[in-house]
Automatic annotation (TrEMBL):
Subunit structure: Homodimer.
Entry protein name: Lysine--tRNA ligase
Class of enzymatic activity (EC top level): ligase
Cofactor info, note text: Binds 3 Mg(2+) ions per subunit.
Length: 506
């Protein structure tokens, strides 16, 4: 924690760091190599000993972990040791360890990693404790951890030094252990329904499957530019064409866009595709998946997010985009007959209208800016305009709209799904329209993908497709305010640049 300026009642950090390095020489002079042990065999974890004390009382155990506190003087001392699952108290006594080993213990610092063997008992205060019979130094810590009272509070430092954040803040560790359980539950849900998990390329020659700005890299051997994938869609639909029928992938995608509490340039996306169903089938999967995961990891279909109770129990409310606008704003776009009339509505509501926008673009703009925040309880918003849905099938009764939905919780989009467009001629025409938008300066518009058109010409059955932002799902399941709180190593500006910017602002 060399970034901390002042710790432990104002002592100078550099002096403390120097003392720790001096202890290396002191330990070596006593015949202790601070990094010399390659392997240490444990018999138990701290949590199982504390949770099942009656069976462990009086037994000898061997555990390992990081020293988080030391206290006591003279011939007896206490320490707390922390492993992945929790903490437990240790009792060190001179007449048990012998003079040399007790002196070695006194040299150890908070943050050092040790292995201990000892007998389980309860202290006079009733705390489960291990009476240490033997211990070994497994790794010397040369940095000074934040003290337990002040902790690691600076968000920027927490994200940059997640390894310290995990040590100091128990809730952070719990979040990421729960993240693993959530991802496991998602796989259980889909695997039990006959879906096949697959892997598709991360490097693409065409950035497709979403309206997003890609990261560009260069392949030297082929001498071509390539893109980090912005979505999983087009490769997965090729597999539907190939007859796999029910496929999913959960992996990182990359979008060269802004960052805020809901967006990180790389994030985990789940996409699944099922042949012979439609977007109504995808609604069933979405609401049941969320409910299954919540009950599996939290024990209830109800969650509390930022103080608000959210009931994930199916069925969720279903509402068309046009009806949502009518309900929340009393604007009926069914009665709007021209692009010009729609644009005028947007301007009256102080919304920015970009050149070339059509009625469908305006409907989506009005909904995004003025309606989303009203959708607190889980809601499916259906039937999106074709202008913003280049990969979704048109509705038979209204070709200006598509069989598409997005799911919203707490005013945030958590899922996006279509009845997939499987008409190759219509798809090519929409790609051509997207190309016109790219030529007009929209670098988030889709590129032409001739091979995907060829796949559709081979023939894709009626298909439902679904995408879920896994990090956002995890935010709800863990009551995390920011997406950075559920990504172990979120994207950060290089520290030197951050410090320079900070100094300029000061």
């Amino acid at each position: 924690m060399a970034n901390t300026n002042d710790v432990n009642n104002g002592e100078n950090l550099n002096e403390l760091l120097k003392i720790r390095r001096n202890k290396l020489d002191e330990l070596r002079s006593l015949g202790i190599e601070p990094y010399g042990i390659d392997k240490f065999d444990r018999t138990n974890m701290t949590s199982e000993i504390k949770n099942d004390y009656d069976n462990f009382e009086g037994k000898t155990v061997t555990i390992a972990g990081r020293i988080m506190s030391k206290r006591g003087h003279g011939k007896a001392s206490f320490a707390d040791i922390q492993d992945r699952d929790g903490r437990i108290q240790l009792y060190f006594k001179l007449d048990v360890l012998g003079e040399k080993n007790y002196e070695i213990f006194k040299i150890l610092d908070i943050g050092d990693i040790i292995g201990v063997t000892g007998e389980v008992f309860k202290s006079k205060t009733g705390e489960v404790t291990i009476r240490v019979q033997d211990f070994k130094l497994l790794s010397k810590s040369l940095q000074v951890l934040p003290d337990k009272w002040h902790g690691l509070k600076d968000p920027d430092l927490r994200y940059r030094q997640r390894y310290v954040d995990l040590i100091i803040n128990p809730g952070v560790k719990e979040t990421f252990i729960k993240r693993t359980a959530i991802i496991k539950a998602i796989r259980e849900f889909l695997d039990s329904r006959g879906f096949i998990e697959v892997e598709t390329p991360i490097l693409h020659t065409i950035a497709g499957g979403a309206a997003a700005r890609p990261f560009i890299t260069h392949h030297n051997a082929l001498d071509i530019d390539m893109y980090l994938r912005i979505a999983l869609e087009l490769h997965l639909k090729r597999l539907i064409v190939g007859g796999l029928e029910k496929v999913y992938e959960m992996g990182r995608v990359f979008r060269n866009e802004g960052m805020d509490i809901r967006h990180n340039p790389e994030f985990t996306l789940l996409e699944l595709y099922e042949a012979y169903t439609d977007y109504h089938g995808m609604m069933d999967i979405t609401e049941n998946l969320f409910a299954y995961v919540a009950e599996k990891v939290n024990g209830s279909k109800k969650i509390v997010y930022q103080g608000t109770e959210i009931d994930l129990t199916p069925p969720w409310r279903r509402l068309t985009m046009i009806d949502a606008i009518k309900e929340f704003l009393d604007i009926d776009f069914n009665k709007v007959s021209s692009d010009e009339e729609a644009i005028e509505i947007a301007k009256k509501n102080h919304l920015e209208v970009k050149e070339g926008m059509k009625k469908g673009d305006i409907i989506a703009l009005v909904f995004d800016e003025l309606c989303e925040s009203h959708l607190i309880q889980p809601t499916f918003i259906m039937d999106y305009p074709v202008e913003i849905s280049p990969l979704a099938k048109r509705k038979h009764d209204n070709p200006a709209l598509t069989s598409r939905f997005e799911a919203f919780i707490y005013g945030r989009e958590v899922a996006n799904a279509f009845s997939e467009l499987n008409d190759p001629i219509d798809q090519k025409e929409r790609f051509i329209e997207q190309l016109k938008q790219r030529e007009a300066g929209n670098d988030e518009a889709h590129m032409m993908d001739e091979d995907f058109i060829n796949a559709l010409e081979v023939g894709m059955p009626p298909t439902g497709g679904l995408g879920i932002g896994v990090d956002r799902l995890i935010m709800f399941m863990t009551d995390a305010y920011s997406i950075r709180d559920v990504i172990l190593f979120p994207t950060m500006k290089p520290k030197a640049e951050q410090d320079e910017l900070k100094n300029e602002n000061e």
